[in-house]
Design brief:
The protein has about 140 residues and is an all-alpha fold. Helix content is about 70%, strand content about 0%. The protein has one domain. It is built from 5 helices and no strands. Helix 3 packs antiparallel against helix 4. The longest helix has 26 residues. The relative contact order is 0.14.
Length: about 140
C-alpha cells in the first residue's frame, strides 16, 4: 500500500490522497450522466405523450414498461451520481414517478393516473439501486 500510495503521489502531485475505489472514474461518471439524462427525458416524454407509440414491450403490459424504465434510470443514476446517498437517489426517482402519475391525471394529457404504476416505479428503483450499488462495490474491491 505504501508503494502504491507513493507511486500515486508521484504521478498525481496535485492531489493529496488516492481516489476512492468505490467512486466511478470520471469518464464512466460522465457517460452515465449523459445516458441518465437522455433516458430520463425519453421516459418522461413517453409517459406524458397523449398517444404514445406502440413498443415491443407493450405485450408484457404497462407495469413492465414502468419497471423497465425506472430500473434503467436507477441503474444509470448509481454510477452517474456516486456521491449521492442511495436513499436520496431512491427518493428522488420515486418522486419523479409520482410526478409523472400526477401529470398524467391532467385532462389535456389524455392519460390515466394509476397509483400502482407509481408503486411499480418505486419498487423498480429500490431493487435496481441496491443491485447496481452492490455491483459497483464488488467491482471496486
Amino acid at each position: 500500500m505504501i508503494v502504491i500510495g507513493y507511486r500515486w503521489r508521484v504521478m498525481n502531485p496535485d492531489r493529496t490522497s488516492p481516489p476512492d475505489p468505490t467512486r466511478a472514474p470520471d469518464r464512466t461518471r460522465t457517460i452515465s450522466r449523459v445516458l441518465f439524462w437522455l433516458a430520463l427525458i425519453g421516459a418522461t416524454a413517453l409517459a406524458l405523450m397523449p398517444y404514445p407509440p406502440h413498443l415491443p414491450t407493450d405485450r408484457f403490459g404497462d407495469k413492465f414498461n414502468h419497471v423497465l424504465a425506472f430500473a434503467v434510470l436507477a441503474a444509470l443514476a448509481v454510477p452517474a451520481f456516486p456521491a449521492m446517498p442511495r436513499l436520496r437517489l431512491i427518493e428522488r426517482l420515486s418522486f419523479l414517478g409520482a410526478m409523472i402519475e400526477l401529470l398524467q391525471s391532467l385532462p389535456w394529457v389524455h392519460r390515466d393516473c394509476d397509483l400502482r404504476d407509481w408503486i411499480a416505479d418505486t419498487l423498480a428503483v429500490i431493487v435496481a439501486t441496491l443491485v447496481t450499488a452492490a455491483l459497483v462495490r464488488r467491482k471496486a474491491s
